[in-house]
Amino acid sequence: MIIQENISLAQYTTFKIGGSARFFCLVTGIDELKEAVKFAKEKNVPFFVLGGGSNVLISDEGFHGLVIKMEIKGKVKRQKLKGKNESQKSENIELEIVSAGAGEMWDDFVEWTLANGFNGLENLSAIPGTVGAAPVQNIGAYGAEIGQFVSSVHAFDTHTMKEIELNARDCHFGYRNSLFKHEKGRYIVTCVDFSLKKDGKVNVEYRDLKEYFNKLQVTSGPSGESADSKVQEITPSQVREAVIDIRWHKLPDWNKWGTAGSFFKNPVVTQEKFDELKVKYPAMPSFPEASGGVKIPLGWILDNVCHLKGVMTGGVGTYEKQALVIVTKPGAKAKEVVDFTHDLMKQVKDATGITIEAEVEWVN
Fold first, then answer.
1. pTM of the predicted model, to two decimals?
2. 359 catalytically annotated
3. Has 262 been annotated as catalytic?
4. Active-site residue among 176, 195, 220, 240?
5. Which tens digits make up the pLDDT trace of 203-243?
């Protein structure tokens, strides 16, 4: 392992923004990771683990510690078992344990699972970033969250300097949340095991997917159920294609814009608060949360309440097709993004009384 100095971090993030790392290294295995953490401790500097750089905003001043670029790779089928997974609690089904190294690109892994006959992750297609970052965020989209499919997470405990294995329950998955956020800096994910189905039933309950397949006249039921000869059964690969198609019609061109995708979390409010807002904004959509709260699509608030879709201030703005997505022009600074997003937070607070949280991690 080679420790480099004063390496620009903008090239490693999708925002294409940020200063330099005082120290920088690539790790391709556990021994190198252990060596990197030991180096940071001996130098008495903080460390930060960087995956695909798609969910971070690096400060203009950079990071005055060690940036560890995660490059631990590998995809493999581990074993077959009978059991239940979170998405099909009532069924005793055949599951496959499939693993991927933390440095694997997430969407490449999703594509690989489908190519090998495993399904479940297709709704999470086209999400940028790495496998290692996925459980930290408990990434979710189109009616699915990664926590539904995680069997266990392998990690390096920087306190004990030992490898550990955490089962899904230990990870405390919540909406865009997990143990790894609460114990920030302690656990470095090295590998994730997933329990997936072999040619199982697809999940197309999310509204956008329903509308997409209704237009194509296909159904998620067994072939031949409908009298309409045009109707066919939806396959996992078709769900992946649909998700990719829907996402890229809503998201900016990553080659043209700097962006981290959705910048904020969708707020979860009490039923009482939602009822209050519903009186003022009758068209406001919502989704029930398992916790008992109500999730409100922030993009709807930014667009229909605050009228902020496609608004630009200097080199930073909201995307013209999705106000939840922050975009930057070449040459924009991190401070501009911070100032712009703080202004958005204030406008939402003033209009609705809701305090929104950033999903993107601020690194300085």
1. 0.89
2. yes
3. yes
4. 176
5. 999 989 999 999 887 666 554 444 343 446 899 999 999 99
